[in-house]
């Protein structure tokens, strides 16, 4: 492996360690022991849930190819997963507000465990069922757990500012450290110990079962709107009305879809971008480097949130930086002539792109706890899961279209499109800040007006 990869990984490790160990009083928030116990319980469960997801990632495509399916067949399986998340996942996720968020989290565990079990079958129909179950589980993962956390945090009377601590720690561990360890553990099971590509899925099912046991034994139930008067369609109408009537919610949904759509497109494109001529690149090590970059971003986010910096303000900068990083493949394609030799090591242009991609992953690490913080502020509690799943409809539709047309456009066009989307997200973020400030100003004026008769 080239020294370049070790240098990048080592530099990132040093920076992350320095940021975590060098936190000052301004970067830490004084909390209570009750909150710390609550936070640690949630972070443990979230990390187990994410390990169940990360363990599967490196071997999904490889397992399907080992069963003899071609690129087209595998592509349809992936489309089924995102399509299922868009359709069935939205319905199941929305039921969390009505039937209970704890039940929805348990449903996630059961659904994903069943999806893992289907990986033992080489039958295409069985694997398709597994992808549909996986799509439903993904919607629950990105809505039910956060909805439960926000509601339970508020129900227990903790300081709203402390939510940022839980978000940052969960992303730092669940989307950073756990992802790195899961990738290495999956490789150990499948390659070093020789259990084959289905072994990581069995391990994922075990971690999900452990997490489910903790949820069942230590979590209490909470709801969005527990009234008997609202059926599922009524719940959808409440969510749609909230989005249509509140510009802040609509802007937040658009920002999330634009960023996450670009992020998922990046997941499909980074390999061909770094190895356009089948260069020999260490995929697993690069993946670990990306996750380390994400940890760096979440560490930066924890500092920004601890110092109570305005999320709507600094996220404009984050989106702009991420837009620049994804336009790098377009720029390097023109400035650095690509090699015509097949194989070999990563090119100079590839090295530049890798540094840019690490920067993008750092932006992803900042994005997750920051978007969670904004969602906790703007999305109404009675339809939180429903609205969050509404946000995922355009996202999943976008990813399905990209997957279907991934070979129809040059890779530079795809990255250019993502860069434009990210610049749009920055513009919408600016608009969200303006609308939020106007709303706070008008609310303050109303409160002053109400107090005036009492204080002549």
Automatic annotation (TrEMBL):
**Transmembrane regions listed in the UniProt entry:** 6-22, 43-62, 74-96, 129-150, 170-189, 201-219, 284-305, 317-335, 347-368, 411-428
User: Does Metal-binding count among this protein's keywords?
Assistant: no
Which cellular component terms (GO) are annotated to the entry? plasma membrane
> Entry's SUPFAM superfamilies?
MFS general substrate transporter
Q: One Pfam family from the UniProt entry?
A: MFS_5
Q: Could you tell me what this protein does?
A: Mediates high-affinity intracellular uptake of the rare oligo-element molybdenum.
* Protein name per Swiss-Prot or TrEMBL: Molybdate-anion transporter
Please report the organism this UniProt entry assigns to the protein: Urochloa decumbens
């Amino acid at each position: 492996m080239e020294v370049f990869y070790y240098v990048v990984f080592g530099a990132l490790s040093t920076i992350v360690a320095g940021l975590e160990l060098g936190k000052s009083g301004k970067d830490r928030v004084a909390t209570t022991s009750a909150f710390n116990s609550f936070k640690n319980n949630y972070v443990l469960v979230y990390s187990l849930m994410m390990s169940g997801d990360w363990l599967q990632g490196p071997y999904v495509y490889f397992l399907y190819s080992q069963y003899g399916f071609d690129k087209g067949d595998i592509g349809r399986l992936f489309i089924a997963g995102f399509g299922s998340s868009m359709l069935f996942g939205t319905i199941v996720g929305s039921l969390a507000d009505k039937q209970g968020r704890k039940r929805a989290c348990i449903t996630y565990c059961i659904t994903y465990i069943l999806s893992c079990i289907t990986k033992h079958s080489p039958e295409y129909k069985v694997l398709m069922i597994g992808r549909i179950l996986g799509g439903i589980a993904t919607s629950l993962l990105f809505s039910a757990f956060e909805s439960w956390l926000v509601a339970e945090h508020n129900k227990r009377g903790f300081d709203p500012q402390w939510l940022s601590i839980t978000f940052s720690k969960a992303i730092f561990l669940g989307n950073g450290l756990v992802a790195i360890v899961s990738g290495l553990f999956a490789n150990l099971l499948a390659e070093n110990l020789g259990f084959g590509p289905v072994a990581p899925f069995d391990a994922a099912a075990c971690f999900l079962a452990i997490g489910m046991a903790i949820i069942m034994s230590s979590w209490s139930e909470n709801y969005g709107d527990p009234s008997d008067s609202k059926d599922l369609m009524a719940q959808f109408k409440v969510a749609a009305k909230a989005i249509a009537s509140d510009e802040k919610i609509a802007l937040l949904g658009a920002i999330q879809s634009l960023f996450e759509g670009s992020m998922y497109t990046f997941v499909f494109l980074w390999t061909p971008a770094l190895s356009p001529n089948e260069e020999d690149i260490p995929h697993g090590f690069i993946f670990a480097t990306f996750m380390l970059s994400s940890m760096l971003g979440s560490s930066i986010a924890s500092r920004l949130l601890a110092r109570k910096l305005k999320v709507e303000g600094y996220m404009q900068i984050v989106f702009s930086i991420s837009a620049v990083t994804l336009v790098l493949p377009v720029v390097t394609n023109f400035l650095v002539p690509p090699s015509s030799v097949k194989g070999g090591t990563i090119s100079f242009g590839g090295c530049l792109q890798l540094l840019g991609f690490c920067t993008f992953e750092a932006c992803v690490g900042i994005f997750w706890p920051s978007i969670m913080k904004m969602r906790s502020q703007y999305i109404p509690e009675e339809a939180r899961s429903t609205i969050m799943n509404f946000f995922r409809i355009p996202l999943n539709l976008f990813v399905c279209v990209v997957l279907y047309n991934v070979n129809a456009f040059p890779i530079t066009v795809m990255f250019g499109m993502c860069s434009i989307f990210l610049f749009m997200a920055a513009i919408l973020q600016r608009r969200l800040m303006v609308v939020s400030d106007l709303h706070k100003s008008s609310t303050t004026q109303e409160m002053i007006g109400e107090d005036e008769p009492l204080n002549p």
